[in-house]
Amino acid sequence: MVNTTQPTADLSPASAVKALQDERLKEVSLLTKIMRRPELGALAGLVLVAIFFLSTADASMFSLAGVMNILSPAAQLGILAIAAALLMIGGEFDLSIGSMVAFTGLVFGCFITLTGWPLLLAIAATFVVAAVLGGLNGQIVIRTRLPSFIVTLAFLFILRGLSLVGLKWATGGSTQMRGLGGEGESDLVREIFSGTALEGLFSWLAAHDLIAKFPNGTPTVAGVPVSILWFVGFALVATWILLRTRAGNWIFAAGGDANAARNSGVPVDRVKTGLFMLTACAAALVAILTVLDAGSTDARRGFQKEFEAIIAAVIGGCLLTGGYGSAIGAFFGAIIFGMVSIGLTYTRFDSDWFQVFLGAMLLLAVLFNNFIRRKVTGER
Amino acid sequence: MDTQAPLIEIRNLVKHFGSVIALSGVSLSVHRGEVMCLLGDNGAGKSTLIKTLAGVHRPTSGDFLVEGQPVSFTSPRDALDAGIATVYQDLAMIPLMSVTRNFFMGREPVRGVWPFRHVDFDHCDTVTREEMRKIGIDVRDPHQAVGTLSGGERQCVAIARAVYFGAKVLILDEPTSALGVAQTSMVLKYIHQVRSKGLGVIFITHNVRHAYAVGDRFTVLNRGKTLGTYAKSGIQIEELQNLMAGGKELQAVSEELGGMV
Q1: Does residue B121 belong to any structural domain of this protein?
Q2: Among A334, B5, B238, B241, which is most exposed with the fewest C-beta within 10 angstroms?
């Protein structure tokens, strides 16, 4: 923020100090301040992509229904990407998150069908299983000092395989488990984890002709899918933690230089283990949301999501080497992802261009981040 | 508490790493308002010694007293809590993080109740700018990354951080070894300033000139043993240099090169 107030005639010491500080602060140009934000690249990318689709795609893409279409896949990916971003800032990778989605989906399915537990208990138990697995990942990485890339790559295969084996065991030979939707049942927990929210608001908006509606008066978009609200909420909480809390400072420190952080009294091992648990729990959240939405789970859930999440985090400004990045950047990165993957179907382009686009985005983002990092640290 | 007791005193400290004897009986002491220079060539055991004082290693045997009380540290945190702050050669600073975030790293002041507990970064910024101003570094923007500071400035930030967080003893591990002349004098001046505040400083270096410029007493370490401790009044710079390098060889080389070493 540029301070435009003029120094007043008040010469009390307090105001003198204030004026002195303001004068110093002005020397940091606005541009430098903006450049210092890690999510700048993602925001710029989002604007570019939006302009591209505004000029090439069918107008219905940016209708309310179209935006929900874009945000739904973005939300699922985004929840993973934000967790992956925090872990990356903390200096580690987790390649097992995609498989973790499939495995925790299976675990959740088993808790529902085999134990007959109430939904809340099944959800809580699934998170516990995920946290234990994430903690295991973290402990192996910390104790062996092996790169997390390799350790979690192993878990990518282990968990994917276990999901297949487990599904066949639980269903008697099928790789899909059905009947998990709990149709007809309705309680608060289910409301929080499935379906849409804010229906009242949307009905009201439709009644006042503010959004599109069917001839019978119900809105064409019944409400916001809960996954989108989870996505936005998680992005806000993660950003707050990263920028405003002690844990956030420890995450930056652990990723920036683990040794230096340890010497300064930062509990690096605890921070990293916690982050691995967080990514696993984010995967479990996505699993629960998708299982309740689809009423089924299968062994291909979350396939290759680990790469997409890391790409979204990098587009969002995270450095592969750790210590730098942002959660809100990963939020934008995931929306770019959703916009491109869904948006191409609204254009005359073949949707297989998606992957080309993705690779190009990633390369651009990495080049841009590298440039910014040099700017920020004054490296030459 | 005995206020006359040295801040740190070690007697016959021994440290073995398996079959390697890194320290074989080191004794030294540091008092309030004193700069104690620890001199020694590579492999003399300086690093092992300071890591033992900083709580990274545990001594195999020997006495380790802080203000007259025997202590046994199990982690760097214990040493910090006892008021022994170490500024490592690699600085324990993170280049990508802002000056403020580095300054308060590991000791962030929090406020509010969980889950709304957060760090008051505005307060942190003010403190950082103020502390930097005191040591003559004009940090215009405490949000700027530490990577943009010069080596001397970083060293001073690290020392200022230790002082701010209530260190009684500062252990400085070769703070001037990678610095140019102007930056070295900036750091030496600051060490002088810290001493006048009544802190004890252990200044590790292998540059005798830097040591002689600020030191009150000198302990020379060689092959894991203390060769002796000398007051500034009792020893000349050349003598110190010879002791440190083990005498004769350097003398010979020095004469060959016209006394320039």
Answers
A1: yes
A2: B238
